[in-house]
């Protein structure tokens, strides 16, 4: 038996099996389709940012209104603010 020796030979391998891969045309169509929805995605993102800002502001207002030191200073008319805050929170949760 002769020992095996590496010959140092280089082999170029090209894989041509595209099974399961989308064609170039399919990829092009997918990119175009994604571009169609990009503006809608951006608009949805802006709406979420505005809603989150409103929600944060509302919770900060509620915490301020329920603060013991400030709560003592609120008149019954001012306490209606708490009702409005609760309405905004309910609306925000539903939307």
UniProtKB/TrEMBL annotation:
Region (Disordered): 1-25
Keyword Repressor: no
Record keywords: ATP-binding, Nucleotide-binding
Keyword Zinc-finger carried by entry: no
Gene3D superfamilies referenced in this protein's UniProt entry, alphabetically: 1.20.1270.10, Substrate Binding Domain Of DNAk, Chain A, domain 1
A UniProt-annotated Pfam family: HSP70
Annotated Polar residues bias: 1-17
Alphabetized GO MF terms: ATP binding; ATP-dependent protein folding chaperone
InterPro entries assigned: HSP70_C_sf, HSP70_peptide-bd_sf, Hsp_70_fam
This protein's name: Heat shock protein 70
């Amino acid at each position: 038996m002769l020992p095996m020796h590496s010959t140092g030979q280089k082999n170029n391998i090209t894989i041509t099996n595209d099974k399961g891969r989308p064609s170039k045309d399919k990829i092009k169509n997918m990119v175009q389709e994604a571009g169609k929805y990009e503006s809608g995605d951006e608009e949805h993102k802006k709406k979420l940012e505005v809603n989150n800002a409103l929600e944060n502001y509302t919770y900060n207002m509620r915490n301020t209104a329920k603060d013991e030191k400030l709560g003592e200073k609120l008149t019954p008319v001012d306490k209606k603010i708490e009702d409005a805050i609760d309405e905004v929170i309910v609306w925000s949760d539903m939307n």
